């Protein structure tokens, strides 16, 4: 229940420029935090690898100078130092910018957890917006972290931190905790840029259920040869919610679960549950229930679940 | 949240041929089977676009994309009203969303954006925040004067305003010769390149901070400007005491006209956001904030470029070019260049595409 409730709490409708209402799901704060952690790990890992590479090169530089750094050619050393400084800066800002400007609108970390950025207005995602949202990340996250670490060190050494430090902490905490104070989990950078982070679902087209098994043969079972036919009264026990639960179970196709559902349905409609032919029974029941509910739908009659 | 399907990352699983349409017993499944081919074609094009190979997509596919997108969107609308197949609806929702991101994707590549940015976009954004520029300039001048006055009243302020690392021999009571020596040139260019790279990294960080703090109604940005300029005011006071004002100004102007201009721009960009959030006018606050934020972001990309120029100027010409006159010449040339670029250079705005 809680997962479904959380889903509806996070689902929004985005209206495209041609007036089509598209459902989107705002990414959960946990998914975003996870994506950020992944990204930071990748950046730090990449920079460390780069340092090691340079160290390896510089190690070669020291050969033949009896490992005396002062004897190494200065120009080459300086070049490596510049490379480090520039690489740090470019990686830190470029990593997010280049990837979010790309057609997927997501960094590697975001792609791994299945989320992406989008324009809140439903229009195009402008390059300016991507730049703006990434420039604010520093004050939202890393300055507060550095400040908090500094305060921790100070408070270990001395007892009093002073009111100014507390004020600064509160101030930065305001930025860091910003996503918890609004419905769409916007961080300050999202507000400035007019963007939000949404789930990027990648669903596969599943097989049609009414072309396989007993559903395709109008209730006839291959195993027993029996034909399952359900009457009006038996089919009006359940609604759309139960139908879609049954659909999921048929697609997952786990024998124990199918047997349990089979028993539950038989009890509900007053049949005597047999054994060994659960799948055919459920396929037939699914096809006939869906045919009935979809038929009612065409006349504007919908039955959400078994209670309605 | 559904766990991402890892197999969708690697390889494209074999797609079985769809079953015969007539074999479907349900009307909604027949509806789906009739349109499935179009959906799969759209999915294929979108997947290729996401991988970034726009050039490898056939023209016929690109032309078909909008029509396929609309087909899928209308299929979704029909399916929601006629089908209870949750898997198909979930697939269509994901497909239409993905296709929408590609159809309304970034309007042009980064290269085209950069060209537009350099040829007019940047200076247009700077001019659009003229009021914030004026306020920031006023605050900076006021900050410098305050710095001067504070130090003139009480020398202890000097140590509070100027970080000790910066003022090695530049402290109150230093002799004229000591001060002159800090303005002298280096003997060789060795080590200056590293210095430039570190300056750039550090100064850009300060500018980005000034911009980002503008989010809190612009006040922290202004405080940062005041603090930076008070430091400058204190330095000027120190050198003026020994009659070295002109020498210091020349020394500073080489890179300062670019660097202080950049700091001015970033402070103004921060203030622009803060001001538009405090006084959004008739627009919703969020809309006003995002409009100002995007304009500010354009200016900030420019500020990073200015910081590169400033760091190069600071490391090389300032330390290598001697003489008050030639230093002033470089500094004033840079200032004239920036002013002309921002306020005189007004190319025609390129025609925006309507979508």
How would you describe this protein?
- The complex is a heterodimer of chains A (308) and B (355).
- Chain A is mainly alpha-helical and 308 residues long.
- Chain A has 13 helices and 4 strands.
- In chain A, helix 11 packs antiparallel against helix 13 and helix 12 (255-269) packs across helix 13 (278-298).
- The model of chain A has no long low-confidence stretch (mean pLDDT 80).
- With 355 residues, chain B is mainly α.
- The longest helix of chain B has 34 residues, at 245-278.
- The chains are: A mainly alpha (308), B mainly alpha (355).
- Which strand order do you get reading across the main beta sheet of chain A? 1-2
**Strand portion of chain A:** 5-15%
Helix content of chain A: 55-70%
Mean pLDDT of chain A: 80
Distance separating the two termini of chain B? 32 Å
The run of helices and strands of chain A is HEEHHHEHHHHEHHHHH
Q: What is the beta-strand fraction of chain B?
A: under 5%
Gyration radius of chain B, in Å: 30 Å
* Element string of chain B (H = helix, E = strand): HHHHHHHHHHHHH
Evaluate the radius of gyration of chain A. 30 Å
The structure class of chain B reads mainly alpha
Largest beta-sheet characterization of chain B: none
Count the beta strands of chain B. 0
Distance between the termini of chain A: 18 Å
């Amino acid at each position: 229940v809680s997962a479904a409730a959380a889903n509806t709490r996070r689902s929004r409708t985005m209206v495209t420029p041609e007036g089509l209402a598209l459902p989107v799901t705002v990414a959960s704060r946990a998914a975003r935090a996870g994506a950020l952690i992944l990204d930071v790990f990748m950046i730090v890992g990449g920079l460390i690898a780069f340092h090691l590479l340079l160290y390896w090169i510089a190690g070669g530089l020291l050969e033949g100078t009896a490992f005396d750094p002062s004897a190494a050619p200065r120009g080459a050393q300086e070049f490596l130092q510049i490379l480090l400084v520039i690489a740090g800066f470019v990686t830190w800002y470029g990593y997010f910018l280049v990837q979010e400007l790309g057609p997927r609108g997501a960094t590697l970390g975001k792609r791994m957890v299945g989320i992406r950025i989008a324009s809140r207005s439903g229009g195009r995602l402008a390059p300016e917006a991507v730049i703006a949202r990434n420039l604010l990340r520093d004050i939202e996250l890393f300055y507060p972290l550095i400040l908090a670490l500094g305060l921790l060190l100070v408070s270990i050494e001395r007892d009093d931190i002073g009111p100014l430090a507390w004020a600064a902490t509160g101030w930065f905490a305001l930025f860091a905790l910003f996503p918890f104070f609004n419905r769409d989990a916007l961080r300050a950078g999202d507000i400035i840029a007019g963007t939000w982070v949404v789930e990027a679902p990648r669903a596969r087209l599943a097989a049609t259920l009414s072309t396989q098994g007993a559903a395709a043969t109008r209730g006839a079972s291959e195993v027993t040869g029996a034909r399952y036919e359900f009457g009006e009264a038996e089919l009006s026990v359940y609604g759309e919610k139960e139908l879609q639960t049954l659909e999921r179970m048929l697609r997952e196709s786990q024998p124990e679960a199918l047997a349990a559902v089979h028993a539950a349905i038989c009890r509900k409609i007053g049949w005597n549950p047999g054994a060994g032919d659960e799948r055919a029974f459920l396929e037939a029941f699914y096809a006939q229930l869906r045919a009935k509910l979809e038929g009612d739908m065409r006349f504007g009659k919908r039955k959400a679940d078994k209670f309605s | 949240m559904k766990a991402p399907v890892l197999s969708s990352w690697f390889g494209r699983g074999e797609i079985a041929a769809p079953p015969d349409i007539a074999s479907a017993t349900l009307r909604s499944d027949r509806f789906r089977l009739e349109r499935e081919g179009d959906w799969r074609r759209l999915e294929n094009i979108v997947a290729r676009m996401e991988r970034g190979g726009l050039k490898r997509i056939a023209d016929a596919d690109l032309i078909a994309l909008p029509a396929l997108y609309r087909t899928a969107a209308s299929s979704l609308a029909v399916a929601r009203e006629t089908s209870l197949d949750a898997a198909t609806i979930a697939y269509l929702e994901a497909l239409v969303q993905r296709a929408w991101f590609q159809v309304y994707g970034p309007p042009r590549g980064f290269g085209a954006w950069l060209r537009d940015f350099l040829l007019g976009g940047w200076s247009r954004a700077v001019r659009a925040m003229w009021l914030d520029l004026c306020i920031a300039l006023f605050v900076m001048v006021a900050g410098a004067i305050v710095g001067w006055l504070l130090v003139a009243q009480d020398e202890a302020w000097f140590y509070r305003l100027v970080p000790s690392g910066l003022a090695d021999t530049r402290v109150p009571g230093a002799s004229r010769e000591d001060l002159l020596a800090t303005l002298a040139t280096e003997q060789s260019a060795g080590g200056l390149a590293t210095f430039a790279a570190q300056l750039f990294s550090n100064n850009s960080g300060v500018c980005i901070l000034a911009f980002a703090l503008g989010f809190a109604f612009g006040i922290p940005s202004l405080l940062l400007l005041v603090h930076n300029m008070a430091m400058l005011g204190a330095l000027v006071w120190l050198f003026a005491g020994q009659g070295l004002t002109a020498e210091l100004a020349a020394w500073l102007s080489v890179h300062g006209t670019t660097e202080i201009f950049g700091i001015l721009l970033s402070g103004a960009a921060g203030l622009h956001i803060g001001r538009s959030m405090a006084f959004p006018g008739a627009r919703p606050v969020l809309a006003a904030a995002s409009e100002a934020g995007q304009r500010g972001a354009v200016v900030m990309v420019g500020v990073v470029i200015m910081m590169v120029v400033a760091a190069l100027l600071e490391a090389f010409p300032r330390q290598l070019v001697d003489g008050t006159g030639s230093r002033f010449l470089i500094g004033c040339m840079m200032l004239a260049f920036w002013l002309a670029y921002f306020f005189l250079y007004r190319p025609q705005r390129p025609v925006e595409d309507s979508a």
